[in-house]
C-alpha cells in the first residue's frame, strides 16, 4: 500500500511528498520551505531515523509507524501559528476515532477506544501516549511564516521508558496501516485547518479541544524549567495557555512545560 491523500485534501490543493525512509519529515519540510516551497504539502514516511520531539528529544519512527509533517506558509504571527497545534490534535483524534470505530465493527463486543488530548502536544489512548505533535515556524521571503506541524503516531510499536507510558494502535487491537491512518488524517486536517482559519476560528478549536482534553479538573503539576506550578487544570485560555487554579482559587497561565497529572503530579512536582 502507498501513501495517498484523501479526496478532500486533494480537492483542497494539498500536495504529497512520501519517502520510504527519511531522517526527519519536519526537517525535510522546513528545508523545502527555505528553498521556496510554499505548500500546502504533506511529508510522510513509515520509517524516520532522526526525528525530534519537544525540547530536542529524539523521536524515532520504526518502520510501520507514521511520521507525518504538514508545511503551510502563512501571513500570521508566531503566537497565532502556535495555536495550530490544537487543530492538529483534533485532526488526529478525529482520524483515530474513525479508524478505531471501523476496527470495532470487525471486533464484535470490543469496547470503543477513547482518545484524549494532553496539553500541549500529545494524543493519548487509554491514558497512554499514542502520538506527539511538534510545531515549528520560521520566517521566509515576503515577510511570511513557514509553519511545519509534525505528527508522529505509534502504529505498530511504542517506545519504552518514556515519562508518560506509551502505547501503539496495534497493542490496542486497532490493526491499520500507517498509510490508511495518513489518508484519514489528511482528510481531518482539511476540516480542522479550515475551522482554525489562520487563527480566526481558534475559539471554536479551543471549545472542541476542551471537549477531548485529558486531565481537565484534575490535579496537575507543570515543570516550566525554572519553576513548578501546581493546582487544578482549569482550562486553556484564548491563546492556548494552560490555566492552573491553586488551592486559594487564584489562576495562573502556563505557556510551556512538562505536564504531570494525578498521582504523577507528585513526581513532577518533586
What does this structure look like?
- It contains seven helices and twelve strands.
- The chain is α+β, with helices and mostly antiparallel strands and 270 residues long.
- The protein has two domains: 7-211, BirA Bifunctional Protein, domain 2 (2-Layer Sandwich); 219-269, SH3 type barrels (Roll), CATH 2.30.30.100.
- A seven-stranded mixed beta sheet has the order 1-2-3-7-6-5-4, sandwiched between helices.
- Strand 9 and strand 10 (242-245) form a beta hairpin.
- Helix 4 (84-106) packs across helix 5.
- GO terms for molecular function: ATP binding; biotin--[biotin carboxyl-carrier protein] ligase activity.
Question: Can you give me a brief rundown of this structure?
Answer:
It is an enzyme of class 6 (ligase). This protein is an alpha+beta fold and 270 residues long. 29% of the residues lie in helices and 28% in strands.
How many alpha or pi helices? 7
Find the structural class using helix and strand composition.
alpha+beta
What coarse outline follows from CA principal-axis ratios? globular
The run of helices and strands is HEHEEHHEEEEHHEEEEEH
Which architecture of the largest domain per CATH? 2-Layer Sandwich
Secondary structure: helix percent: 25-40%
Strands, count: 12
CATH class of the largest domain: Alpha Beta
Full CATH superfamily name of the largest domain: Bira Bifunctional Protein, Domain 2
Sheet-strand content, in percent, reads 25-35%
> Which strand order spans the largest sheet, edge to edge or round the barrel?
1-2-3-7-6-5-4
Alpha-carbon Rg, integer? 18 Å
Distance between the termini: 47 Å
Reported for the largest beta sheet, the result is:
7 strands, mixed
